[in-house]
Design goal:
Layout: H1 2-9, H2 18-30, H3 34-46, H4 53-66, H5 69-81, H6 89-101, H7 105-114, H8 120-132, H9 139-148, H10 155-168, H11 171-183, H12 190-202, H13 206-214, H14 221-233, H15 237-249, H16 256-265, H17 269-281, H18 288-301, H19 304-312, H20 320-332, H21 336-348, H22 355-364, H23 371-376, H24 378-383, H25 392-403, H26 407-415, H27 422-434, H28 438-450, H29 457-469, H30 473-485, H31 492-504, H32 508-516, H33 523-535, H34 539-551, H35 558-571, H36 574-586, H37 594-606, H38 610-619, H39 626-638, H40 642-655, H41 661-672
Helix pairs in contact: 2-3, 2-4, 3-4, 4-5, 4-6, 5-6, 6-7, 6-8, 7-8, 8-9, 10-11, 10-12, 11-12, 12-13, 12-14, 13-14, 14-15, 14-16, 16-18, 18-19, 18-20, 19-20, 20-21, 20-22, 21-22, 22-25, 25-26, 25-27, 26-27, 27-28, 27-29, 28-29, 29-30, 29-31, 30-31, 31-32, 31-33, 32-33, 33-34, 33-35, ...
């Protein structure tokens, strides 16, 4: 291109005519040097050379790329003045396309209406103009009108409308287009076939997508990316990985979409880091979209340092998604100060935060020490139309003020919002629930219902937690009825919440009935039902359920063992408790938590096995806490073991010198053991 430009400018003694100018402007437009194309057009006019059709088409293309509406309108006037518009459908179609790219639909419609002849290219340009303005639904009627004019859809038409069907859920139209593709022999075409694959995948017909994929004449990297995404979206990770391996074996380099898809498949940190190394070798890891996916992966795995490295390695153009993911990772790892620093740095780099970034920043400010940082963005949130229904900033602000203990401000935001929705109400209810204001939470829920808003799944789970914390059986049954009304009673999270609520309220029959209705039981569901019986001291049923859980192939966790150890403790089942602790470490490889050890120690000392209980406390791999020693002291009081009790008191006071319980218990032991001489009772252990 440089040589051609140099030759053009060397034409000092030869007149430069419209033909040479058309070549120059066309070359600029073709290579994306659009500003130079517009400058060349102006220079041509200044030299008195009148443009022809080729010049108009090339210059209009440059305007389309630049979204230069003002220059495009000037060209439109010139085209009309030169009498080209009515006589050439290529110029008219290019003009129509320019208005479409500039989102100027009214002018595009005028051009289209004035065209003397329309072909499939003109119709495609008009349909694309509607899509650019977000009016894709209107395009379906245009296709019917095009067919009425006996114009046959081409590959571009079919791909355009198939994509619209996928986005707008028009399955019947999509199937009709599939039939058209069959008649025209385009189903095996890689571009049209990929659009069909994407459409069927969006409708959940992954098997239909797979059959179409296998029937393609050529499987390029784009079609493979779409097929991989379809597999991932529908839980067929093995198929996606198999396709990815096939691509690598054939020596193909994955594209950006494929890289993002495969990162979503990584299940742990090791897989993620291996994939990161591979993408670095392909030159993809530093591209912004891929780096954003890496940040999301490392956040999911809790690897803050790896996330920071990926963030720092982004070549250029860290966008708002990059910053938002980094802020989210910091918040997830409890590094709120770093999250706030990243937000400030993002602003300094002139990246405008979106709703998600502001929400992450508010979450990082949800403490008294950072309260004024969060409050400072409140005015920014007001500028972003808090009155809009579904605005995420409304609920984010309510949550922020609630977590900082400012329930008045949280309530004010909701009640000053003219268009309240169930999400913002749920945020306010949760804010009150988290601060143990159960009655206020119930009152707000009732008020929301009076406003005519129906609770959604998230709202009902929030209120169900309030019922559980407050042992509110009557309110819990009311929530249960509403859960049935909206059809989420089979949802495992909702049903597990119901089991926990009924268990806490002592209604074991309802808890068991709800649990029995669960078709898909996970460890949380099992913990809820075992915990329900454990809270009521029913050791036999708790341990029986534990056995059923094992036979069902569900692996217990810390919470499960805490429940069974607790029920053994209250039932005095020493032998069973020891077996469970051994099972926990030996069969399942779970390192007992401090709570697990404390429960076991309590079981031993309650049974009078003070030596074993004390030995466990002193030998457990984690450091005992005050509660560990208080447990031993309580047993010492019962068994009048003043020496051991004094030793335990010394340990407890060493951990917390301001604790009152060791003094009270030790005083009680002294009173019960009057006359016993015990020197240096509080000597440092």
């Amino acid at each position: 291109m440089e040589d051609a430009i140099a030759s053009f400018h060397a034409m000092l003694h030869v007149p430069r005519n419209v033909f040479t100018w058309a070549i120059l402007i066309g070359m600029y437009a073709e290579h994306g040097v659009d500003m130079d194309a517009l400058s060349a057009f102006q220079q041509m006019l200044s030299e008195g050379v009148l443009p022809d059709k080729a010049v108009f088409v090339a210059t209009l293309s440059a305007c389309s790329h630049l979204r230069a509406l003002r220059e495009g309108k000037r060209l439109h006037s010139s085209i009309v003045s030169c009498g080209v518009f009515g006589s050439d459908h290529i110029v008219a179609t290019t003009l129509l396309s320019m208005y479409g790219k500039c989102k100027c639909l009214d002018f595009a419609c005028e051009v289209f209406a004035e065209m003397q002849t329309r072909n499939v290219v003109s119709w495609n340009a008009m349909m694309s103009a509607y899509v650019e303005r977000g009016l894709g639904m209107d395009v379906r009627g245009m296709m019917a009108q095009m067919q009425a004019e006996a114009i046959l859809a081409d590959r571009i038409t079919l791909v355009l409308i198939l994509d619209l069907c996928a986005d707008h859920g028009s399955l019947l139209l999509g199937q009709y287009l599939h039939t058209l593709c069959l008649h025209q022999g385009l189903v095996s075409d890689v571009v049209v076939g990929t659009a069909l694959i994407n459409m069927y995948a969006k409708f959940g017909s992954v098997e239909a997508a797979r059959i179409l994929f296998q029937g393609l004449i050529e499987q390029d990297i784009v079609s493979r990316s779409v097929m991989m995404s379809a597999y991932v979206q529908h839980g067929r990770a093995n198929d996606a990985l198999q396709l990815f391996r096939q691509i690598l074996l054939e020596g193909e380099v994955p594209n950006v979409v494929m890289a993002i898809t495969i990162l979503d498949l990584c299940s742990d940190a090791q897989e993620g880091e291996q994939m990161h190394a591979f993408l670095l070798s392909c030159g993809l890891a530093t591209l912004v979209p891929v780096s954003n996916a890496l940040l999301k992966l490392y956040g999911k795995c809790g690897l803050l340092l790896s996330a920071k490295k990926a963030f720092d390695c982004i070549d250029v153009g860290r966008n708002v998604i990059s910053w938002t993911e980094m802020i989210k990772v910091c918040v997830q790892q409890g590094q709120n100060k770093d999250a706030r620093k990243h937000y400030v740095q993002m602003m300094m780099e002139c990246v405008i935060p979106d709703d998600i970034a502001i929400t992450g920043f508010l979450e990082a400010c949800s403490s008294q020490e950072a309260f004024f940082h969060g409050k400072s963005v409140h005015s920014c949130c007001i500028d972003r139309y808090l009155d809009e229904v579904g605005c995420p900033l409304t609920s984010a602000l309510i949550s922020f003020y609630g977590k900082c203990g400012h329930l008045g401000e949280a309530s004010q935001i909701l009640f000053e919002t003219s268009k309240q929705d169930v999400v913002s109400w749920s945020a306010l209810i949760k804010a009150h629930a988290d601060l143990r204001h159960g009655e206020d939470a119930f009152r707000l829920f009732a008020q929301m219902e009076c406003e005519g808003l129906k609770p959604d799944r998230v709202c009902l789970i929030t209120v169900l937690d309030v019922c559980t914390c407050n042992s509110a059986l009557h309110e819990g049954k009311h929530i249960h009825n509403q859960i049935v009304d909206i059809g989420v009673e089979l949802d495992v999270v909702v049903s597990t919440g119901l089991v926990a609520m009924y268990g806490k309220c002592g209604s074991l029959e309802d808890a068991q009935k709800t649990f029995n209705g669960l078709s898909n039981r996970n460890i949380i569901s099992w913990n809820a039902i075992i915990g329900a019986y454990a809270q009521q001291g029913d050791a036999k049923q708790s341990l029986q359920l534990f056995s059923q859980m094992q036979m069902g192939g569900c692996v217990p966790d810390h919470v499960t063992f805490q429940n069974v150890l607790s029920v053994c403790r209250h039932g005095g089942l020493v032998e069973e408790g020891c077996q469970f602790l051994s099972l926990m470490c030996g069969d399942y490889g779970i390192i007992p938590s401090l709570d697990n050890f404390n429960s076991m120690a309590d079981l031993l000392v309650r049974a009078g096995l003070l030596d074993k209980g004390e030995g466990l406390i002193k030998s457990m791999p984690c450091n005992p806490n005050t509660s560990s020693w208080i447990t031993l002291m309580s047993a010492c009081k019962q068994h009048l073991d003043i020496t051991r009790g004094a030793d335990a008191a010394g340990h407890a006071l060493k951990l917390d010198s301001k604790a009152l319980s060791p003094y009270v218990l030790l005083s009680n032991i002294y009173c019960l053991c009057r006359g016993v001489e015990v020197p240096h009772l509080l000597e440092d252990p």
